[in-house]
Amino acid sequence: MPLTQITHHDLDGYGASTIVASFAEPDRVVHVPRYGDVGPVVDGELKRLGRTAAGETLLLTDLGLEEPTIAFLRRFAAMNRRRAPGDSHRLVVLDHHASSVDQLRRQGLEPRAEPDRPTLLRFDLNDPAITVLIDETSSATRMAHEHRALFANGEAEPARAADLTLLVAAVDALDLWRKDDPLFASGLALDEAFWDNVATLVPAGHPAHDRVVSRLLLEASAAIRAGASPAALERLVPEIRVRIVDDLMRDQPDDDPSLTTRMRVARLLARSDALFQALADGTLLSFGLDPGTFQRVSDLIMASGRASRVVNVQRTGTLSFRSNNGTALAGARLFRGGGHQDAAGGKLPNGSAFSLADAVAQIEPTLNPPATAIENNPFAALRHWKG
User: Fold this and answer.
1) Sign of CA dihedral 142, 39, 114, 1
2) Which InterPro entries does the UniProt record give (predicted)?
3) pTM for this structure?
4) Among 317, 24, 324, 28, CA closest to 156
């Protein structure tokens, strides 16, 4: 059964996705930085699942459940009631936020404590295909590990089992702020390594993103298990990153090992179809790229001739235009912005965005109104004529 995981964009959320990938093979992993974006993201998944004939599993980890998400839970149950027997989708929610319990109770959903573990609360949606578990005394990473039978289709590699156990313990100590735990300082060091690399090495959205971050966390956990102090781990992380990039770039024809790891990876990213979507006028749009990554990658894209203008959209709604033909400023001016001819910025009309598709939907109509799109795209003109 295909598996999609939606998880928080922090160490605990990635710890949970690392656990899941160790016991299953997710088809997709979606990382959500803001709880306010969870509603639109799961609504999109609900629409997709509604069009899917065969049953799938949707796993939510480390996401604070607010009203829109709880409404989604009920709509998911309603969708399953309309499906043919045997084709139901499965939904598993593993959370640990006290606010989630409060919100569920406000919506009329009362928990049932597990007899052998009073802190583990189960919420019943009257659908055996839906499991909602909340445990305030456990991180999402630990919950994913303890409840892996809900999604696992195999066992973790034996060589990684001890590293996974260490990762669970370190993330648990940090995320629950157990300062007296011997692994608390190691959890802090893991957190620093995570934030230093999660957005600036291989960005979310690229097929290699989760694999790279999980390997970084597991190799760092192995170092901690071998006795590395937080200071020693800080020195080891660049070496771990080099090993990961060496493997990632091994078969890339234009790799140059004399460059920094991020310079090397930028060449791979510049060719990615997953990170960039072409707009009607040929502008390439990316979503949520780190500014330094965007600067390096956009330059490579334009130098290769793939596009002459690139725009990066941040979740906060800021836009960064780059061009090599003097059109960046013209694009930024359409979005209340300014700057230089080939480097300019603006602001989204809705103030923020929650996904690449959302960013495209906000930018395309302004950057390329229908008449402009037809003038610049002969295929669009042909469709217009046929219509």
Assistant:
1) negative
2) DHH_sf
3) 0.89
4) 24
